[in-house]
Amino acid sequence: MARLLPTHTDAAVERSDDPAVLSLDDDATREVIEALSSETAYGIFQLLNETPATASQIADRLDQSVQNVHYHLEKLESAGVIEVTDTCYSEKGREMSVYVVAEDPTLLFLGTEDDRPSLKRAFKSFASLLGPPSILLAVGESVSQFVTTE
User: Fold this and answer.
1) 77 contacts 98 by C-beta, under 8 angstroms
2) Phi, psi for 30 (deg, rounded to 5)
3) Which of 11, 114, 132, 149 could form a disulfide with 86 if both were Cys (CB 3.0 to 4.6 A apart)?
4) What is the topology classification, in CATH, of domain 20-149?
């Protein structure tokens, strides 16, 4: 029997080439750091970097309760690092949001707004040597090492 409501999603993880830049004196920075500070939230963020998922799929993969996953999803979404990309339905017909990392990657630097021009100059010279994809990979690795050591 054919289903009227989709139980799976065709959503994919897509990232733009235009990262958001957060500095220490930016209010959004604290929210992002707080949202990613728990081990569960960080695990959710890592999973959503690989593949879109519903709260129940995340809960199954991370061996967490759905309620706990929803709590962290709300914090991550409020911080702007994940977003709802699609909707699908459970076997029982319940509507489920499909989450994915935000389209714009986020670059966090440990300086102030006054340091932003020198940061941009440094990245432009670095980009001319390595190319933009290499920079995003290096920044992502640096941020993940920073978050996992805290």
Assistant:
1) no
2) -60, -40
3) 11
4) Arc Repressor Mutant, subunit A (1.10.10)
The angle subtended at Cα 97 by Cα 90 and Cα 54, nearest 5°, is: 70
- For residue 134, the one-letter residue type is S
- For the question of whether the overall pTM of this predicted structure is more than 0.90, the answer is no
Sign for the CA dihedral angle at 142, 147, 149, 150 comes to: positive
In this structure, what token pair is assigned to residue 103? Answer: 């389209």
Task: Enumerate the domain spans of the chain.
Answer: 20-149
Structure tokens at 43: 């695990």
Q: Would you state the structure tokens that stand for residue 95, as one six-digit string?
A: 């509507």
Per 3-state DSSP, the chain is made up of helix, strand and coil in percentages (nearest 5) of 55, 15, 30
**Strand, helix or coil at 89?**
strand
pLDDT value, residue 39: 95
Helix (H) or strand (E) holding 106, with range, is: strand 106-108
The pLDDT score that the predictor gives to residue 146 is 46
